[in-house]
Write a structure and sequence with these properties.
heterodimer; A: mainly alpha; B: mainly alpha; 14 helices; extended
Chain lengths: 314, 295
């Protein structure tokens, strides 16, 4: 029993380090690849680390209208995102804190407080961002739930450890129609949830288009660093969720032994592949109008329904 | 109003189905029941389970949007009216009422594994088995749907991790960073000073949802501007925005009218005279007798 707990603890710490270390890297790689695709030189892939380092050393300005919510939110967002990251299978099929469950609800807690802090400052931009963020997440939710339901039916469980375990198993086919549709639906939801083009543009500070950036407009210094770091961890968590539930190749049975290095290498390779896909989507699409986003999410919902119906047909 | 705000915030988090409070536990158990229900039948009716699941997800997300608004607009930022500026805490007994409910949200959430036993008599009566022992796992730390491979949640574990992380990192770092922080004005697009008029309102907050679901709400708005010299310098603007209460108008309204009409017609037989009522009883008795004899 004690040995098991210590084992879990070591796994958790290993995954925590991996999570914190490579989240900014993924953001940096996506930015660098995007710059290349647009024939810009762009910053190096290590730029997000430099940004974080610089922000953590700076002083900060707290708005005079803000309450304790404003100060507590960066911590709640950061901790809840990291906690969600420990509940997903990254390198080993067994998630370190898989027992805790409810990844998406934990991410939802972070979003709830971020939206509150957007309204807390009294700035109209914050309210605008919060309003849009909550609207889009409400519309993304049904599509996500249908896709997850389909995957859970295939694996016979909502536990991510079990889903990834079933995905490693023999009779799992990625090319099964239900899996393909569910994958497409979740990929669309991922784009909406991580605030990427065509839903939100992470590079802009233009009033009319921003969502996530508008909510965090009043943050500065270390708290901004925390929120930005949490945003990149959230992106990593959702990407890992997608790739490990659908392409479980290279997922190790446990964190211990040489296999872990192999598992990390596979994870990075899969993340790079997914990043390339995201960059491609971001480059060839323009940001849609806010009121066209529901149509995009309706497509995701339809794909989720198709996934569900194809579990009957095939 | 710090006490009221904290109680309201706990309630808002709970009703939005967010961990680690009671709403999350209930929502999660409902999802597990829906997933398990899917496996119980082979007919097409089982499509109802995922559809119900996605509608539940939509409801929870809309509730979160609603309660961000309901908490933030009255409690956060600058007061939006003179009445709000003068707001003060209610009397201690009234605060105690709210606090009791908030404590209930927290206890039922964190101690979910202790309270599932309450359902045992119900399941015992309906199904002949008690389920709580199958639902509680890992020495009461986690809740599971009762199947071997099912997912698990541990609200107490989450709360514990939050507390440890908060005490170990957040408090010391926040204290250190506070020395480097200054208080400053909010960005107001370069205008002199942020006032309550600049703030987002509840109506503005829910505008995207009203637009998206406009087929349901049929929003209508009217703007009248009065001006003397040029339309660019209005002297007074009147703005009116309304939504249609679709369900009230299309479902409950007609239903209520039917019932009232039927009741009106029934009123005819209620003469108020005891002789008539005795006659009714007599007729009923004869009819029942005939029924028994025939049967």
């Amino acid at each position: 029993m004690t040995g098991q707990i210590i084992g879990r603890l070591i796994e958790s710490i290993a995954q925590l380090c991996l999570l914190l270390a490579i989240a900014p890297l993924v953001t940096g790689v996506i930015r660098a690849l995007k710059a290349r695709m647009q024939t810009r030189r762009g910053p190096g892939i290590l730029q997000p680390y430099r940004d974080l380092y610089k922000l953590f050393r700076k002083g900060m300005v707290i708005p005079e209208t803000a309450s304790w919510i404003f100060v507590a939110t960066p911590w709640i967002v950061f901790f809840s995102t990291v906690l969600a990251g420990l509940m997903i299978p990254m390198v080993a099929a067994e998630a370190p804190l898989g027992l805790f469950g409810g990844v998406l609800a934990v991410i939802g807690l972070g979003r709830f407080f971020l939206a509150l802090s957007g309204l807390d400052t009294g700035s109209s931009f914050g309210g605008l961002g919060s309003s849009r963020e909550m609207t889009i997440s409400a519309l993304a939710e049904p599509a996500m739930m249908l896709a997850i339901f389909t995957v859970a039916i295939g694996a016979g469980s909502t536990s991510l450890t079990q889903i990834a375990g079933a995905a490693i198993g023999q009779n799992w086919r990625f090319l099964a129609p239900a899996q393909m549709f569910a994958f497409a639906a979740l990929a669309l939801v991922l784009i909406a949830e991580t605030g990427r083009i065509p839903v939100d543009n992470p590079d802009t500070h233009l009033e009319l288009t921003m969502i996530h950036e508008a909510m965090i407009l009043e943050y500065s210094g270390p708290y901004l660093a925390l929120v930005e770091w949490a945003a990149s961890i959230k992106q990593l968590v959702l990407m890992t969720l997608l790739i490990n539930c659908f392409w479980p190749i290279g997922l190790q049975p446990t964190w211990f032994g040489f296999g872990a290095l192999q598992g990390i290498a596979w994870l990075l390779a899969k993340l790079l592949f997914l990043s390339c896909a995201i960059v491609l989507i971001e480059t060839v699409n323009a940001k849609t109008r806010l009121f066209r986003v529901p149509e995009l999410l309706a497509v995701a919902f339809t794909l989720g329904s198709l996934a569900l119906i194809s579990t009957f047909l095939f | 109003m710090p006490v009221t705000a904290l109680c309201f915030l706990l309630g808002a988090v709970a009703i939005s189905g967010l961990p680690p409070l009671n709403g999350f536990v209930s929502e999660w158990l409902t999802y597990q029941a829906l997933l398990a229900g899917f496996g119980t039948t082979q007919s097409l009716t089982r499509l109802m389970f995922p559809i119900a699941g996605s509608l539940l997800a939509l409801t929870a997300a809309l509730a979160a949007a609603c309660f961000v608004k309901a908490f933030a607009i009255p409690f956060l930022a600058l007061p939006r009216s003179n009445e709000a500026a003068d707001a003060h805490e209610a009397s201690p007994t009234m605060q105690a009422g709210m606090a009791a409910l908030a404590v209930g949200c927290v206890t039922l959430g964190l101690g979910a594994t202790l309270f599932v036993r309450v359902f045992d008599p119900i399941t015992q009566q309906a199904l002949g088995v008690s389920t709580s022992s199958a639902l509680v796992m890992a020495h009461g730390l986690a809740l599971s749907p009762g199947t071997i491979h099912g997912g698990t949640i541990s609200t107490a574990g989450m709360a514990l991790l939050f507390l440890i992380a908060g005490a170990a990192f957040a408090l010391p770092l926040a204290r250190r960073w506070r020395r480097r922080s200054v208080t400053g004005p909010v960005w107001d697009c370069g205008l002199p000073g942020l006032t309550a008029d600049n703030e987002y309102t509840a109506t503005a907050f829910s505008k995207p949802l009203r637009m998206i679901f406009s087929a349901l709400y049929r929003p209508r708005r009217e703007i009248q501007a009065e001006y003397e010299v040029s339309p660019h310098y209005p002297s007074a603007i009147r703005f009116e925005s309304k939504i249609e209460l679709t369900f009230e108008k299309r479902l409950y309204g007609p239903l209520r009218e039917r019932i009232m009409a039927l009741a009106n017609r029934m009123k005819g037989i209620q003469a108020g005279s005891i002789n008539v009522y005795l006659a009714y009883i007599f007729i009923t008795l004869i009819l029942l007798l005939l029924f028994v004899v025939r049967g």
